[in-house]
Amino acid sequence: MTDNISRRQILGAGAALASSAMWTPTMAKSIPEAATMDNAATQAPLVPTSGVDYQPVVTLNGWTLPHRMNNGVKEFHLVAEPVEREMSPGMVARLWGFNGQSPGPTIEAVEGDRIRIFVTNRLPEHTAVHWHGILLPSGMDGVSGLSHPPIKPGKTFVYEFDLVKSGTFMYHSHGDEMVQMAMGMMGMFVVHPKDPQFMRVDRDFLIMLNAFDIDPGSYIPKVMTMTDFNLWAWNSRIFPGIDPLVIAKNDRVRVRVGNLTMTNHPIHMHGYDFEVTCTDGGWVPKEARWPEVTVDIPVGGMRAYEFDAVYEGDWAIHCHKSHHTMNAMGHDIPTQIGTKLDMHQKKTRRVQPQFMAMGSEGMADMGSMEMPLPDNTIPMMTGWGPFGPLEMGGMFSVVKVREGQASNDYGDPGWFQHPEGTVAYEWKGEVPTATRAKDARTMAPTEQSGVQKNDG
Ligand SMILES: [Cu+2]
Question: What is the pTM of this model?
Fold first, then answer.
């Protein structure tokens, strides 16, 4: 397809946009090759090789879609298709996504660019792609039936527009939206400022919040679920499958977060305060920012926050809704804290021989327990740190700030080596009788003074 024809299509009525009659094999040859990714490892950022310089983003457990230049237009090719996404080692989800993964690859461009995005539909039903938050002509907005006709299976549509504004944006399906969003059809879209010095950072991380409801032992999300999702994910990954955010000490760092789940997520980062520098509407002027340690990401919204990485260490970063840092779990389990389970277990086993009563002393034991699980299922609470089980899942990772980490090195430096005398420790001395640890069931003081079972 020549530039001329494409321009004519774009400028004509929305309905004429790449209508199938316009396509011939010769034209099809000029579509850029669609890059595809076959694994969920964090890929090295795509450093710009021409045009305006920028600090490329790092999509955790994701990648950036390569583009080609065609007469001054940046051309991308997205392919909507069924994919297999490893959500964490040991668990694969059968999703719908783009170019081999869900979420789709991150699209990165620069303010002032004209871009042309080819979207090929290899799904079993029609689709359309909405460019969430981007200012563009109405007919390019990607709402199936409103902006343009649906993209039928096997067809390719062309979206073309100027990027008039920098910031953090998203893209997602806007055809049979409930099903296609539940199946994972989404990605991030970053537009860098045309002034390379404006809002420049040393590391720029990208997290898309998404959620799935996949029954333990199965592979395909339940698309009718409205609120009770069981897998709370970052870039369709769940802890311990989420890579750490690796940072060199004293870097200026930005973390961009977009939310395409159906609830808000208060993202909390330990060890630092930070300031929100970008919302879905644009950059926040310096005088208008306020310091925070938790930033709530609204549904359909994007927030970017920044900090100077002056404190070395391993710092947790997670959603602060505690059920969102769990993997697939049943929510209708009765609370058993303080109950005597022996009798309960004996009685229940008469009808359900495998029944195991648990939770009378809280549920921390589940973090280290080796319970038989259905195939393709990750434990509800899992992951190991240098001092024991982390008892986490879902939306959790670690910010690793290290002295001497090379500027383009995002490789995991391992656990933090704490300076002497900076780790909390067990008290070995006398404890007054009244404050000794008590047995949870009898509420009688025990002989031991320590409360913690894990002693590093
Ligand atoms: Cu959350």
Answer: 0.84
